């Protein structure tokens, strides 16, 4: 199937590569042309203007956007709305707030352009292992695009969750849960580090042990093991933990609907606190974000 990938960052680049490997024809566009050039060398068709993207696709055109949530997506959608045609399809695969999906779908529908939202999880490992896809939009459009979803995901790794916004809503909650899980691991290793036995502990070995039959085994623990294998005491980084919005949105949704979510709330507050106070627990959370998503960490010598 023919598809354009707009935005070749950590996720978009590898997703485009996986689509190429799967036999799809990919038109690549990025605001930094060098990334487009890089993907062209791997078999993609390069486009260096929004207009070129549309010209190089056959109707019905499929545009997959992998850009930061917010104004950047709106700016691109305004441009695409002007030059796309009825029955063309726009997919937002970034970490977008689900209420923005509903608004954007209505705007594009004014011209008969279809819209799908896809929450994507898998981080920098998705090229090899596949991406978990949480999808929202019309069932017919979903079925038309299914070969793309099948290529990007591992077996049983994609699902139409409901109408427009449902995909990003599920991804939002997914990330809220992620906050809580990461915080629990961080606090656990923080307690180990503060114990009278800490000098004898090898945290990589403990993470490996916990992944051998224990009830807390997980992929996150594999990443923790990998991180401690590189830096036994995480001495090279600060415990500075960013957030990209999904935890805030999940907590806001919990408040709006009266659902108690103390773990997610406290994990978000802890991230805020990490920016003024350095701790071993926060270092574990920071290094986990780097290991699964390629997120930047603050080095120990940085202020």
In short:
By secondary structure, the protein is of the alpha/beta class. Helices cover 51% and strands 13% of the residues.
What share of the residues does DSSP label as strand, in percent? 5-15%
- What's the number of helices? 14
Give me the secondary-structure category: alpha/beta
Helix content class: 40-55%
Overall geometry comes to: globular
Uncertain regions: pLDDT < 50 for 5+ in a row? none
The whole-angstrom Rg is 21 Å
- Can you count the beta strands? 8
Strand order of the largest sheet: 3-2-1-4-5-6-7-8
Order of helices and strands: EHEHEHEHEHEHEHHEHHHHHH
Mean pLDDT: 95
Head-to-tail CA distance between termini: 48 Å
Largest sheet: 8 strands, mixed
Structure, explained:
With about 300 residues, this protein is of the alpha/beta class. It is about 50% helix and about 15% strand. It has helices spanning about 10-20, 35-40, 50-55, 70-85, 100-110, 125-130, 140-145, 145-150, 165-195, 205-210, 220-230, 245-255, 260-275, 280-295, and strands spanning about 1-5, 25-30, 45, 60-65, 90, 115-120, 130-135, 160. An 8-stranded mixed β-sheet has the order 3-2-1-4-5-6-7-8, with helices on both faces. Helix 5 links the parallel strand 5 and strand 6. The longest helix is centred in the middle third of the chain and has 28 residues, at about 165-195.
């Amino acid at each position: 199937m023919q598809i354009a990938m707009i935005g070749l960052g950590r996720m978009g680049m590898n997703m485009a590569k996986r689509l190429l490997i799967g036999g799809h024809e990919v038109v690549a566009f990025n605001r930094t042309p060098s990334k487009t050039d890089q993907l062209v060398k791997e078999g993609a068709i390069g486009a260096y203007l929004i207009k070129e993207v549309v010209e190089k696709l056959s109707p019905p055109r499929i545009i997959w956007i992998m850009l930061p949530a917010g104004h950047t997506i709106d700016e691109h959608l305004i441009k695409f709305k002007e030059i796309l045609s009825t029955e063309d399809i726009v997919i937002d695969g970034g970490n977008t707030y689900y209420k923005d999906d509903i608004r954007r779908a209505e705007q594009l529908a004014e011209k008969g352009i279809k819209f799908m939202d896809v929450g994507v999880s898998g981080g920098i490992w998705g090229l090899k292992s596949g991406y978990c896809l949480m999808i929202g939009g019309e069932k017919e459009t979903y079925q038309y695009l299914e070969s793309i979803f099948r290529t990007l995901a591992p077996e049983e790794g994609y699902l139409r969750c409901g109408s427009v916004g449902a995909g990003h809503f599920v991804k939002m909650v997914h990330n809220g849960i992620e906050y809580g899980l990461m915080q629990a691991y961080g606090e656990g290793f923080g307690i180990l580090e503060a114990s009278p036995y800490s000098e004898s502990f090898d945290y990589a070995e403990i993470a490996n042990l916990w992944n051998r039959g224990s009830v807390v085994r997980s992929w996150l623990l594999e990443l923790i093991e990998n991180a401690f294998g590189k830096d036994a005491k995480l001495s090279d980084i600060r415990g500075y933990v960013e957030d990209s919005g999904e935890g805030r949105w999940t907590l806001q949704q919990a408040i709006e609907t009266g659902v108690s979510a103390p773990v997610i709330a406290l994990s978000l507050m802890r991230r805020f606190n990490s920016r003024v106070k350095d701790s071993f627990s926060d270092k574990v959370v920071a290094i986990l974000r780097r290991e699964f998503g390629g997120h930047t960490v603050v080095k120990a010598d940085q202020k």
